[in-house]
Model the fold of this input.
Amino acid sequence: MRHRKSGRHFSRPTAHRSAMFENLATQLLDHEAIVTTEPKAKELRSVVDKLITLAKRGDMHARRIAASRLNQRAVDRSDVADSKNHNSVLNKLFGDIAKRNANRPGGYTRIIKLGNRHGDNAPMVMIELVEKAMPAAVVPAFQATTAE
Done:
């Protein structure tokens, strides 16, 4: 019996399941919206919400905890040539995403249902961050001028 055992197992061993959520969380934080199955998105929601709450704290210990959960390096040094590629998601999480969600008390993700997948009829959803980055204002190629 599975009484009082929280979380879905997805018919995977623990290491595979944790690696899957590391990858899904990294992709969601990097792209700010991903398409996946509904049960995975519902479990991913709690992982990402906890990471954003850590990022809002902003101290070095929180950065190291988030780095271990995302399987990234917590080094924030500019003299390392490859540091930007290694922890770009971590820098985005602690910089941009934490600032956008500073006044939000929780609920950092949104799940939008998309319908069922053709191959196996699995329910597909799009999970995205609620406070998404606003795109730069589009400058029109042609600007109308008024004749005076």
